[in-house]
C-alpha cells in the first residue's frame, strides 16, 4: 500500500478530536459471518428475503423464528476478529462513544466485552442501527431480553403477551428513530468518519459519513475495494479490516533516537 496514504491516515486519526466509525458486513466477513443474501442460500426452500419481513412473521411466526434460531447457531461459531478488537480498544482509550454498525451479529459488543471485561463503558459499545440477532424484543411493549433457545411454544412476553421476536429490523420496517438520531449527532460532531467494510449505499446509514463531511469533517475508508465514498474520502486504505485497523488505530511504539 502507498506509504503516503498510511502516513496521512495515521495523522488524521491522531489529530481528530472526535471520531465516528461506521462498519458494515465486510468487517464481519473476516470472522466467517456470511453476508445476508449468502447466509446459507436456501433454507428449507425459503430465501432470506422471504422470511425477514413483518408479513412472514405475522403469517408463519414458527418458521421465521426457527430460521433465526438457525442463524443464531451459525453466529455462535464466529468470533470477533482483530478489526472488531482494534475498534473496541480505540474507543475504550478515547472514552467517547462513536461506533455505529449496520451489522446484527453482535461481534462488536463481544469484542468490547473481551477487551474491557464484563461491564464495558458505553464508549466501547456500538450503536446497532439494524438491531442484534442475539436479542429478543416484544413486538408490543418493546421489552428486550437475551435470546433463548426456541421451545415447542411460540415465545411470548411475560408482561403483555406480545410475540417475542428477534430484535432486528426486518424488510419494510423503519430504523429506531432515537438510535438513528444519536448516530446522526455523533456524525455531525465528528472530525473524522472512519468507514469500514461497507459499500455505503444502504440508507439511512450511508448518510452518516456525508453528515460528517457536510459539518466540516473528513471521511476515511477501509475496504477491500472502491466504494461510493472513495472519491470524497481524505484517505482510502485497501485491505482487510483485521489487518489494517490494528496498524491504524493501536498506539504506535515510540522510535528511539539514535
How many angstroms separate the termini?
28 Å
Succession of helices and strands: HEHHHHHEHEEEEHEHEEH
Binned strand content = 15-25%
Radius of gyration: 19 Å
Total of helices: 10
The share of residues in helices is: 25-40%
Low-confidence stretches: none
Largest sheet: 6 strands, parallel
What would a concise description of this structure say?
The protein has ten helices and nine strands. It is 37% helix and 16% strand. It has a six-stranded parallel sheet, with helices on both faces.
Describe the structure.
The protein has 258 residues and is of the alpha/beta class. It folds into two domains: 3-33 and 80-130 and 175-249, TPP-binding domain (Rossmann fold, 3-Layer(aba) Sandwich); 48-76 and 139-168, SIR2/SIRT2 'Small Domain' (2-Layer Sandwich), CATH 3.30.1600. Helices cover 37% and strands 16% of the residues. The protein is built from ten helices and nine strands. The protein has helices at residues 3-15, 25-29, 48-51, 54-59, 61-75, 82-94, 107-116, 177-189, 207-214, 241-249, and strands at 19-23, 99-101, 127-128, 131-138, 144-146, 164-168, 192-196, 218-223, 235-238. The strands form two sheets. A six-stranded parallel β-sheet has the order 3-2-1-7-8-9, with helices on both faces. Strands 5-4-6 form a three-stranded antiparallel β-sheet, covered by helices on one side. Helix 9 links the parallel strand 7 and strand 8 (218-223). Helix 6 packs across helix 7 and helix 8 (177-189) runs parallel beside helix 9 (207-214). The mean pLDDT is 91.
Amino acid at each position: 500500500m502507498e506509504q503516503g496514504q498510511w502516513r496521512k491516515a495515521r495523522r488524521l486519526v491522531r489529530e481528530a478530536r472526535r471520531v465516528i466509525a461506521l462498519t458494515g458486513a465486510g468487517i464481519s466477513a473476516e470472522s466467517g459471518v456470511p453476508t445476508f443474501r449468502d447466509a446459507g442460500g436456501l433454507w428449507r426452500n425459503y430465501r432470506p428475503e422471504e422470511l425477514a419481513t413483518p408479513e412472514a412473521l405475522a403469517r408463519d411466526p414458527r418458521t421465521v423464528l426457527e430460521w433465526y434460531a438457525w442463524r443464531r447457531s451459525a453466529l455462535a461459531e464466529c468470533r470477533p476478529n482483530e478489526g472488531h478488537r482494534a475498534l473496541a480498544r480505540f474507543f475504550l482509550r478515547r472514552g467517547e462513544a462513536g461506533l455505529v454498525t449496520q451489522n446484527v451479529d453482535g461481534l462488536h459488543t463481544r469484542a468490547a466485552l473481551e477487551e474491557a471485561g464484563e461491564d464495558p463503558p458505553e464508549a466501547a459499545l456500538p450503536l446497532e442501527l439494524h438491531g442484534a440477532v442475539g436479542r429478543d424484543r416484544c413486538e408490543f411493549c418493546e421489552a428486550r431480553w437475551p435470546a433463548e433457545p426456541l421451545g415447542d411454544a411460540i415465545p411470548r412476553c411475560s408482561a403483555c403477551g406480545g410475540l417475542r421476536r428477534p430484535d432486528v429490523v426486518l424488510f419494510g420496517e423503519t430504523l429506531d428513530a432515537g438510535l438513528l438520531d444519536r448516530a446522526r449527532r455523533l456524525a455531525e460532531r465528528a472530525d473524522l468518519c472512519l468507514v469500514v467494510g461497507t459499500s455505503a449505499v444502504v440508507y439511512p446509514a450511508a448518510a452518516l459519513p456525508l453528515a460528517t463531511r457536510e459539518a466540516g469533517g473528513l471521511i476515511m475508508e477501509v475496504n477491500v475495494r472502491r466504494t461510493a465514498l472513495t472519491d470524497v474520502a481524505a484517505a482510502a486504505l485497501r485491505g482487510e479490516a483485521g489487518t489494517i485497523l490494528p496498524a491504524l488505530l493501536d498506539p504506535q511504539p515510540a522510535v528511539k533516537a539514535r
